């Protein structure tokens, strides 16, 4: 991929971490002509991870950059089925996402993280980013932009992007305060099951035979256990995440260990205990997995800052989030897309990397923070699920009050359920590039893209859910109409904005 829009003498940028956020930032910055060198501690010899879900707000950015969903084994999410874990009767109506592209401008894909990550890496390298593997960063000097590697090497840059994931420590230097990760109360068991094994067994094949791909999520709410499954890698693997709210085998008390390694082994017996009370066919299917992994889902309060000196935080280093609305990966990609807008015409420091950062760079980093932080904080808080029950209404109100400390734009009505139309509209219709261009031009957040949102003060109401017989278009007509109308004007508006901003 060629660099398309070079500022004269692009910035020399160092990126800490070649995860999704770091690679996305590398692609974005090469597109606008900056020099990029990534320092990644891993050798990527045994890449792991399970599946990731990328809804339209992340997907449309990848598409613009030339990411090929088919080459990455992407599977479209067409429906969400939510049976009771024991009887397998529907607990909630099936939701259809067959028209997600029509509504939100792009498809919703599932990938194996390894496939998606590999493609991003190829794209970053093809665009001219240098990726240094096996190079752990031990420290970054915020003011000078000096990166210190574990082997003692020091490298100085005009700008250092911190993308080293949720265990990042440099954020405390940016904000001036340590904000620890804390337990979410959820422990997640993970497995990957060959789809052929499921389909070859008549006791389990009926779960997926002749069904469009999508989420299949059996739950036992009374036991605090919810399983989320979806296919990846060209529909050859079923990804399973069995999450329990009541602290489980690997986190039985607050004193118990926190497992924050994506590859930590658990046993089939552990999984069987978690699945106590589930239908035998569900247990049989999940226990087909060759391996079981476990991790403690952690969360962190929003940070007060994303940038200081020559440093900017993105991805999980800045805003780790829970899985509820599938925004972890997409919000990292959005960060990169926003950097593509804000750093477009920022030249390298005249005195070289050892010089102080230019006024223009500092200003643009501040603008990036002012643009991204409110929405990211709202997203982090919204993805922390409110547990149903007698306290739910009060807890939803508390959640909204918390969001309002950071974000004044429109929100889905209080209490909107995951996957409901207002939630989808809030997350999936969001066009970060369009908003970033408008912010840069006007210096103010633009909430217009979400003007089709129901009013933030609207009373909570149940999501409109299509049944399998009655698919989404009819039940979601108001959103369809407004979203389609918005989508048709968005492209011409973006083109006009890009022209104007290019002249800034
Ligand atoms: C191995 C792995 C597996 C994952 N599996 C899943 C999954 O199955 N499902 C899911 O939803 N999410 C998964 N995630 C998390 C998901 O990728 C992130 O939440 C999201 O993509 C945001 O990405 P990020 O780049 O900010 O952070 P990450 O994806 O965590 O990437 C951070 C990168 O920085 C590197 N790094 C860390 N410290 C240093 C250092 N000091 N110096 C240099 N490099 C450093 C890490 O090796 C990693 O490559 C996984 C993450 C990892 C690292």
Automatic annotation (TrEMBL):
Write down the superkingdom of origin: Eukaryota
Q: Which GO terms describe its molecular function?
A: FAD binding; monooxygenase activity
Q: Give the matching InterPro entries.
A: FAD-bd, FAD-dep_Monooxygenase_BioMet, FAD/NAD-bd_sf
Which portions of the chain have biased composition (kind: Low complexity)? 454-464
Keywords of this entry:
FAD, Flavoprotein, Monooxygenase, Oxidoreductase
Where do the FAD-binding domain residues begin and end?
Answer: 12-343
Region feature Disordered, mapped onto this chain: 444-484
PANTHER family named among the record's database cross-references: FAD-BINDING DOMAIN-CONTAINING PROTEIN-RELATED, MONOOXYGENASE
Recorded family membership: Belongs to the paxM FAD-dependent monooxygenase family.
Q: What is this protein called?
A: FAD-binding domain-containing protein
Q: Which organism is it from?
A: Exophiala mesophila (Black yeast-like fungus)
Provide the organism lineage as a comma list: Eukaryota, Fungi, Dikarya, Ascomycota, Pezizomycotina
